[in-house]
Amino acid sequence: MKANRLSERTFADTDGEGRGDIGAIELANYTVVIDSTMFPSTAARFRKSLETQIKSPIRKLVLTHYHADHVFGNQVFKDCKIISSLKLLKRMQEEAHTFELKDSEIEERPELAELKDLEMTFPTITFENTFTLKDNDFSIEITRVGGHTADSSIVYFAKDRILFSGDLIFAKEFPWGGDKTCNPTEWINTLKLFEKLKIEKIVPGHGAVCDMEEVDVHLSFLEDTTAIIKELIDNGFTEKEVAEYDGFPSFYPYTNPERRRATLVRWLNFYKRALKE
């Protein structure tokens, strides 16, 4: 893990070792980290690399959503103020009660062994919809937008025109949209919001640093796919038939068929309920 410099004041590691991407913004008097990866070990290596390059101490950690690959490294930043939406805190608390790592899972994926001693570290500052960090002439805007999950937030640093999108962008990957709170309509609306911001670089939740071209690709796929799903609903398609349907628009190849199936089924059931309301 390495804090790679993206601009004068922003950094990120997107190599995938931490399962989720991690970033940072150095302000005048303190530095803000965005997300903490899946593992305390990868979060610690990013922090060590970052601290060799910055002058302002790390004082805050911002979380984009509750999924494990973005928050399980939080304990490395327990000396910081940890900021998230209130919805994220509630989801983390709910999931903490059910988190249990089985020996069979560790045998299958040995890298998970360090999570046996995980110290679940929760946000200390929460907000409903928006939160602004200010330091001298610098400002970081944090906005809960929903979409990928109900608690999904974006982090925008206008000074360097950089957006940390969380899992609203899976660069060059088929997205995960199977969360029980995933709202594809909000997801589409958020991608349209990106078009109104001055953005030169995007640090996605997964995949390499990208730009607005990746947003266009995601937006086109989501709009076309959800339009087709609504037509399939009108034609009475079942979950199985939708999951196996081969008429969806081409997109990045999916290496995990279950991710695709769960995403399509979630979107199907979301629009079924929406059409009844």
Give your account of this protein's structure:
- The chain has a single domain (4-220), classed as Metallo-beta-lactamase, Chain A, CATH 3.60.15.10.
- A hairpin with a 4-residue loop joins strand 10 (153-157) and strand 11 (162-170).
- The chain has 277 residues and is of the alpha/beta class.
- The protein has helices at residues 40-51, 68-71, 86-98, 103-108, 184-194, 212-234, 239-244, 257-276, and strands at 4-5, 10-13, 22-26, 31-34, 58-62, 81-85, 125-127, 130-135, 138-144, 153-157, 162-170, 201-206.
- Helix 5 (184-194) runs antiparallel to helix 6 and helix 6 crosses helix 8 (257-276).
- The relative contact order is 0.12.
Topology:
Elements: E1 4-5, E2 10-13, E3 22-26, E4 31-34, H1 40-51, E5 58-62, H2 68-71, E6 81-85, H3 86-98, H4 103-108, E7 125-127, E8 130-135, E9 138-144, E10 153-157, E11 162-170, H5 184-194, E12 201-206, H6 212-234, H7 239-244, H8 257-276
Helix pairs in contact: 5-6, 6-8
Salient structural properties:
alpha/beta, 277 residues, Metallo-beta-lactamase, Chain A, 5-stranded mixed β-sheet, 34% helix, 8 helices, globular, 7-stranded mixed β-sheet
Strand content: 15-25%
CATH topology assignment: Metallo-beta-lactamase, Chain A
Stretches with pLDDT under 50, minimum 5 residues: none
Decide which structural class fits the backbone: alpha/beta
- How many strands? 12
**Helical content class:** 25-40%
How many structurally independent domains? 1
What strand order characterises the main sheet?
Answer: 1-2-3-4-5-6-7
- What general form does the structure show? globular
Query: What is the CA-atom radius of gyration, in angstroms?
Result: 19 Å
CATH architecture: 4-Layer Sandwich
CATH superfamily: Ribonuclease Z/Hydroxyacylglutathione hydrolase-like
H/E order of the elements? Answer: EEEEHEHEHHEEEEEHEHHH
N→C terminal distance: 47 Å
The largest pleated sheet is described as: 7 strands, mixed
- Overall pLDDT, averaged? 94
